[in-house]
Structure formats: structure tokens, C-alpha cells
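Would you kindly consider the sequence and fold I have copied below?
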Amino acid sequence: MTPILEVAGLKKHFSTTRGFPWPVKTVVRAVDGVDFRVHRGEAFGLVGESGCGKSTAARALLRLIEPDAGSIRFDGTDLRAASAGALRTLRQRMQIVFQDPYSALNPRRAIGRTLAEPLIVHGRARGAAAREAAAALLAEVGLPAAAMARFPHEFSGGQRQRIGIARALALRPDLIVADEPVSALDVSVQAQILLLLRQLQASRNLAFVLVSHDLGVVRWFCARVAVMYLGRIVEQGPAAQVFAAPRHPYTRMLRDASPVPDPACRAVLPRVVGEIPSAAAPPAGCHFHPRCPRATDICRATWPGWTEAAGHGCACHHPDGGGWGVAQ
């Protein structure tokens, strides 16, 4: 099966200058060589702690921010080499749902106009046809047509996120990037939005790139998942397999730290020391080694190569082995 999205060697670095009176320039390696593929109709997850680079990667693959290196191929077309006109056309097939439903909508624009605008801009519909299409989009996400005359401040957070999803659907895309789409919502509302996304995935054969720090959300929604740490993917594979038998110690740390219904059933957590380092000064070798209970001298010296078996791979010098003792 040909992937609808292929990302290879994606990098995005940011330069900052700090200090007085002798300023020092530093480079933040937000995304530092990311590879993954997404197939048609598939939900693919990017997970990791805050600051690992997953949202930057999501925006870079849509060229909402310009990547510094790597290739991004959408349905066979290199997005980085595409002209402005070609990119404008392709963007009709790639949409994004933002994390914050409160800031994602124009507060001075009625919902009907918000939903009709992409149809008008891209020449899909005008006038009554655009209004009818906007009403149909609202119905598809579970909102009444009367919402078209209202403004964003008149809706709850969950309703605003539904409107954001409707806007993303307006041009009938093949791929939706969902950047933490439920993290700002109550738990019960999260479940409703995730069910809506699952229904839309099935009815429209949509591909998703879901960015989240919530492993429970990714485990339920995504078929495959990539785990990011300090701008790099450290493990990737089928979601059920990655969470049931993680090969990288960082993935196991995330899994074991996530909430469970019965805390008494949780296994004893491994000892993980320290905080996540700065992306401006990542540790040498494997970036996770200062916190890893498996770390050895080779981990401190060289970045591990990628090892893969049955579609489940990781970047670790000691995958699946070495025990979970105290960090050396």
C-alpha cells in the first residue's frame, strides 16, 4: 500500500540569542531527524512529553512553519519543492485541528462565515450553496444549523472543537493533523470528540496524524504510534504492540506513568532520575541516557542505530534487555 504521507529526515531548528552584555547564540533542535509514514485511512500517533517536538513536527509537515531539512511527500508530491500555487492546491487535501478551541476561531466572525470561507476562497461554493454546505458540516459534527448565526464565545469548549473539526472537513481533505485536539477539554467531552473523529475517519476514509501526550488517547484511537524524545523518534510500531511490550525504556516509562483504573494493579515503577534535558543542549550519545536505568558507556558515547522487527522498531543500544535496575 502506497503511503499518503512520507516524512524522512525532517528537521526544524530554532536559533535564540541570550545574555547581556555578551549575547550567546544557541540552537534549539526542536525536530532533529524524524521519519514516519501514514497510509490512507490510518490513524498515526505522535506521543511524548511536553517539549519533545511533536507539535513542531506536525506544523512542519504541513509547512505552517518551514522545515530546515528533510523530505515531506504527500500522495507522491514533495511538499518542500512544491510551488506556492501547487502548495495552495495540495493544502485543500491537508487540514489541521488545533489544540486550543478558544483561540482557534475568529471571535468577530459568525460560525457560518467561518465554515463558508474556505469554500469561497478555493472556489468550491458561493452564496446559498456555501451556506448549505456550512449547515451540512455542522450537522456532520453534531451541531444545529442555527449555530451558523452565533459567535465563538456563545459555545462551550467541546462545541468549539466540533466547529474546528467542521472547518477542517470543509474541503474534503484526505489527511487531518490533530494537534492535541482533546487536551483542553473535560474527560467526558474528550470521549465525545474522539468518538466523532473515529466516525469521521470511517465515513470519509480520513488519515490522521494525532499529536498527544496522553497515551490512553493514542492507544484507543491510533493504529500505529511513534514515540518522540528531544526531537527524535525513539520507538515506532503498532500501537497495541508498542504499549504492550515497549522496547525502549522511555516508552516504558511513559506507559507506566500513565493513569490506570486500579492503581493497586500497577507494577512497581522503574527508577528514572532527572528531568528532560533542554533541546538547546541535548546530552551526547543517546539523549535519554542521563535518565535511563539501562544506560552503559556506549549509550553515553554514541546515538543508537535503528533496529526493527515485524514493523516494531526502536533506537536503543539495549532494546528489550538489560533489566530495570538503578541508573548507573
User: Anything to note?
Assistant: DSSP finds ten helices and twelve strands in the chain. Residues 160 and 311 are 37 Å apart (CA to CA). Residues 187-204 form the longest helix (18 residues).
